[in-house]
Amino acid sequence: MKPTQKPVNPCFSSGPCAKRPGWSWEALKDALVGRSHRSGPGKKKLADVIERSKKILGIPADWRLGIVPASDTGAYEMAMWTMMGARGVDMLSWESFGEGWVTAAKKQLKLTDLRVFSASYGEIPDLSQVDWSRDVGFTWNGTTSGVRVPNADWIADDREGLAICDATSAVFAMDVPFEKLDVVTWSWQKVLGGEAAHGMLALSPRAVARLESYTPNWPLPKLFRMTKGGKIVEGIFQGETINTPSMIAVEDALDGLIWAESIGGLSELIKRSERNLAAVKAWVEKTPWVDFLAQDESIRSCTSICLKISDPWFNSLSADEQAAKAKDMTKLLEKENVAFDIGAYRDAPVGLRLWGGATVETSDLEALFPWLDWAFGEIKQQKAAA
Question: What are φ and ψ of residue 267, in 5° steps?
């Protein structure tokens, strides 16, 4: 039967993600609209985003953190275009965004000394293959596959190359040890539920040394240039952004950071995300028609939780029929206003993707599960009726 209780917040999209509990437009009332981001108050707000982010995440004091254009994509592209090519590069990929970085390394940067280690959706490459005398590029969490690295033990403390990490769906929800990394990127629209188009770029002293000592063979667009006269442009990491940011989005980012501080900081954010994964696990274990895309529990994401439909009837359908039925299911849920945007990513295997980041209430996920059972029953019944 159709359930009666609905999630309070039906937003389970993996980006942009759900707003923090209790969010309203009132949170943006102090946005510096109509003012220059280069004004004193504008730079102060931008610097506040940087400093609060550093404090919550425990970023070492000698690191730089800057706000950059074009979301996490822009931040990671900046790192690749300005630092890669100085030595050999190992790239890891196990889903579409990691594969995108591989494509950039191969086809845009045309790196000649490049090794690629890939795995299918739901799996992860053998991390022991990495050579830390080389630069290493990877995602901490595969947003479209629901697979994260199990820990940082595989990253060498005495590495010669740089660890260049896309951590956009990991920071603020997972233990990301910055001392094991050299470049870390993310965006505002993930775990804290901010708006899109702005990225964060964190650089270790080793990464800064690379920027100041290495000049790539290719031309750099203005948006990627972080040095002048062989020295890092410090203003980028003090709130002087390369391009014009949305001060409304800046205000929203501050609201998310202040909320994170108010609930206990990083440890509580991680606990909230892990509780969400635990709730999904408990439901999956008692539900015969669904399973995790990642079979290995140690690599399952607690943010982008990717599920596959394991019912024998569903798997007897053609690939096109499966895609159509999964779409029918998500449309039913959207029509009932119980779950928005939970279809698998377009390049991923057919299935569902539930965001479990810290802004999602576990109670909303628990209210959703009966609706998922109902919607699957509806599409299966339609097949039987046909």
Answer: -60, -40
Domains (ranges, CATH) in the chain? 25-261 (3.40.640.10), 265-385 (3.90.1150.10)
Residue pLDDT, tens place only, 26-59? 999 999 999 999 999 999 999 999 999 999 999 9
Report the C-alpha gap between 130 and 127 in whole angstroms: 6
What pLDDT sits at residue 196? Answer: 85
Residue 384 has pLDDT above 80, yes or no: no
**Pairing state between β 351-355 and 304-309:** antiparallel
Phi, psi at residue 164, to the nearest 5°?
-110, 105
| Residue-wise pLDDT tens digits, 101-131 | 999 999 999 999 999 999 999 999 999 999 9
Distances (CA, A) of 385 to 264, 288, 323, 381: 52, 21, 19, 6
- Crossing angle of helices 362-385 and 319-335, in 10° steps, is 130
For the chain, counts of helices (H) and of strands (E): 9, 14
Q: What is the pLDDT of residue 382?
A: 83
pTM of the full structure = 0.97
> Buried b vs exposed e over 272-290: b needs ≥16 C-beta within 10 Å?
bbebbbebbeebbeebebb
Alpha-carbon span 176 to 334, nearest angstrom = 34
Report d(CA 140, CA 148) in Å as an integer. Answer: 6
CA distance 75 to 149: 20
β-bridge pairing 141-142 and 227-228 = unpaired
Q: Given a cut of 60, is residue 155 above it in pLDDT?
A: yes
- The helix (run of H) or strand (run of E) holding residue 142 is strand 141-142
Strands 64-69 and 89-93 turn out to be unpaired
State the Cα–Cα distance between residues 96 and 104, nearest whole angstrom.
12
Residue 304 Ramachandran class (φ > 0 left, ψ -120 to 50 alpha, else beta): beta
Amino acid 36 reads S
**44 closest CA partner among 196, 307, 217, 240:** 240
Contacts of 133 (CB under 8 A, 6+ apart): 87, 88, 159, 160, 161
